[in-house]
Design brief:
heterodimer, A: 368 residues, mainly alpha, 3-stranded antiparallel β-sheet, 3 strands, globular, B: 235 residues, 6-stranded mixed β-sheet, binds adenosine-5'-triphosphate, binds magnesium ion
Amino acid sequence: MKKLQKSNLQSVSGSALPYIVVVAAFFIVTLLQKSGNLEQHMQGMLVPVCCYIVMALSLNLTVGIMGELSIGHAGFMSLGAFSGVVASQSLIDAVPNTALRLALSIACGACVAAVGGFLIGLPVLRLRGDYLAIVTLAFGEIIRDIITCLIVGHDKNGLHILFNFRGTKTVADLELVEGGLPIIKGAQGAIGTTKISSFGAGVILILIALFIILNFIKSRTGRAVIAIRDNRIAAESVGVEVMKNKMIAFVISTTLAGAAGALYGLNYTSLAADKFDFNKSILVLVFVVLGGLGNMLGSIISATVLTLLPEVLRGFDQYRMLIYAIVLILVMLATNSPKMKALLQKLLQDVKTLLFKAVPKRKSEGEV
Amino acid sequence: MAMLEVNGINVYYGSIHAIKDISFEVNQGEIVTLIGANGAGKSTTLQTISGLLRSRTGSILFEGKSLGGIPAHKVVSMGIAHVPEGRRIFQQMTVEENIEMGAYTRPAGEYAANLENVFRHFPRLEERRRQIAGTLSGGEQQMLAMGRAMMSAPQLLMLDEPSMGLSPILVDEIFDIIKAFHESGTTILLVEQNANKSLAISDRAYVLENGKITLTGTGKELMQSEEIKKAYLGG
Ligand SMILES: Nc1ncnc2c1ncn2[C@@H]1O[C@H](COP(=O)(O)OP(=O)(O)OP(=O)(O)O)[C@@H](O)[C@H]1O
Ligand SMILES: [Mg+2]
């Protein structure tokens, strides 16, 4: 639709600000890296932080924009992670270029998670009420169980997949020929994965996710989804098709979760399905709620801060989780108090005007 | 042929039989009112026409085409707009965004003309176009819901208790706007508890009681009927 006025929804996240923040963070971190000022364990956190940011953006689309609760988002991340790993390991010989292979693997993880989201959405999004929460919760657990039973390998004859439901099968049962490569070994998960994820790829994925989500919100379908969230009956009365529009939003959300999963999976040489449990889903939900429903920049900041905080607090040792909890509560208080919100808005506005002054070309973009 | 023909519909909520074999019609260019007490089935009737609920039997024809099985979002593009009961607006969107949603099924080329038409009827909405809709007064929200429905340039506009909870002055204003819509060529199916005002502007009316139509006639006839006076006109 055209001639959109800026609403409160878009005032912060609809502008160029989130992109600027991400790119600026990328340059600062790269500078720190180059000058040797980034500690070893912080360097190891870079890719996971990117993955969690994309997860938070993805979940914010479902929870904040669509207004449906998903508490099994780690399940879609898991789907993406393991299919991404399988794709990458299978393509090692065919696509030696790691950047290209990473892109293909992320696309593969995204596609598998998209199909997963579609299959979950098909029955659930028709219903009114919080069924999505229950079903995604179950989905997360089921995916974990299925992957724990999965044995996958690749050789020159292609992919070999076994379901080890009885616990009697091993990698040997795949009967891989000479030079074959086991990829997923049941409960052990993915083993011997070649790490190909990089911070740069993570930042690009964040930017792509932002671009997709921010444009979706402004699109006709995005408007329709927000209208359904605000008032379903009114939305139907103006001719909005509920099921189709919600499905599009949900599949975009799970696709991004799958992409984040693939990036995550390809950042470790070994990865068990247990990594993507209920706690992980809740963790991402906490990022979204603390960052603000529908606020994409908020999701980016809270995912970053809350992922890094436990690492930063390592020095405090036994008080670590205590401080973490206190910070959580403080942030919650801050984001829920109107006074603090007004202050934050003002600060953001100031930063924005500063940035737009510094980059005059951007100015016209901010106004629709 | 009537514009809207409702023939023998029966609507249930689970085991509750809310609409019992109702038939009525609305002709092109008319204002037709359904009046009835709380729970008589007025809203249920409108929701069935607009596809939000389904009838188990009978048929609903709009300009000769059956509405049976057509989903709510397609009914709008056939030319029927429904302003649901209770000011259902998009609270978090601005006034203008709400109005824009009303044009959801229309080609973009019509937007400017339809918007101008709505603002002509509701100058108050134009003044407040950037205000968040949830902060509008009750009367303004009702106007917004009506203006939004007019954005789909409907042939038939169905209004569910537009005067509910409004001050007498605003009620007058709303009824004036309904008349203006009508004069500009929109056929109107009105649901009201305010029998006085609605019968005064109606060509014809139907009285609904416990899911059945018990009385029908022109607006004038019904205003003079003893039964109606007793039950709905306070004397
Ligand atoms: N969702 C529902 N579930 C079960 N019963 C319902 C539902 N909606 C309405 N009913 C019942 O159907 C009957 C008709 O309701 P309806 O809302 O159509 O009445 P109405 O004439 O619009 O009343 P009012 O003037 O109070 O709005 C009532 O007995 C009501 O209790
Ligand atoms: Mg009603």
